Amino acid sequence: MKLIEWNCFNEIEAYTTCREDHGRIMNMSFNGIDDQQVLENRQRLAKTLHSDLSQMVATLQQHTTRFIEVHHSDGGRGMWSRDDALIGYDAMYTRDRHLWLWTFHADCCPVLLYCRDQKIVAAIHSGWKGTVGEIVKKVTQHLIENEGCQPQHIYAYIGPSIEQRHFEAKDDIIDLVKKMSFDTSRFYIQKEDGAYLLDSKGLIQQQLLELHVPQSHITVSPYCTIENEDLFFSYRRDKSPHRHITLISLK
């Protein structure tokens, strides 16, 4: 199976799935269209990772800024059905080893964290609503203030998502961007037609920098989900209902 790896440290594993595997559409999200194939795709992924769906956990994402700590007892939730997924959370973190945390995305931005001092991993879904709501900052700040993580030991991966040159936003979104907790003026460019091009990856990276996570510890994926049609689904490009996942686990 084709996977894009975040090659960080030997004590973690982290990947993004791609849209096809030997001609098979690798949708990973139940959407009522091809749910049996989705389940088979998930089982294929688990086998590739020498794991099992009972050691994986997913939320039912709703573009919130809510997050939750998960444990081995949550393993399997959201794997065989959406019915038992953790509802309304767009981020998870854990200290438990061999538990895979999933985040679904197409053009939205997946973000992974590894707090090396406390051996904590996190998976975050940051669409534009999560980005302007500063979900990455909220999760990271919680880990620093409540879980003992030191910023100098935090590593982050900002995964494949829409690049600024394709992310057109109107005033309704930009007005929210302007209200974020730091100066955001350099992260959007106004076009001649009045719309803006928004740098969502940059906004996410700045949330981490504001908390003193070292720049050198932040990996930003060069992949654009709009441009790399051979690798990624994209709602903005073709209204695709399919999703891939970015996932992380402590070994």
Automatic annotation (TrEMBL):
Q: Which UniProt keywords apply?
A: Hydrolase, Metal-binding, Transferase, Zinc
Q: Which reaction does it catalyse?
A: S-methyl-5'-thioadenosine + phosphate = 5-(methylsulfanyl)-alpha-D-ribose 1-phosphate + adenine; adenosine + H2O + H(+) = inosine + NH4(+); adenosine + phosphate = alpha-D-ribose 1-phosphate + adenine; inosine + phosphate = alpha-D-ribose 1-phosphate + hypoxanthine
Can you tell which superkingdom this protein's organism belongs to?
Bacteria
Matching entries from Gene3D superfamilies are given as:
CNF1/YfiH-like putative cysteine hydrolases
Q: GO molecular function of the protein, one example?
A: hydrolase activity
Q: What InterPro entries does the entry give?
A: Cu_polyphenol_OxRdtase, Cu_polyphenol_OxRdtase_sf, Cytotoxic_necrot_fac-like_cat
What family does the Swiss-Prot or TrEMBL record give for this protein? Belongs to the purine nucleoside phosphorylase YfiH/LACC1 family.
Cited function: Purine nucleoside enzyme that catalyzes the phosphorolysis of adenosine and inosine nucleosides, yielding D-ribose 1-phosphate and the respective free bases, adenine and hypoxanthine. Also catalyzes the phosphorolysis of S-methyl-5'-thioadenosine into adenine and S-methyl-5-thio-alpha-D-ribose 1-phosphate. Also has adenosine deaminase activity.
Q: What is this protein called?
A: Purine nucleoside phosphorylase
- Species source reads Massilimicrobiota timonensis
UniProt lineage: Bacteria, Bacillati, Bacillota, Erysipelotrichia, Erysipelotrichales
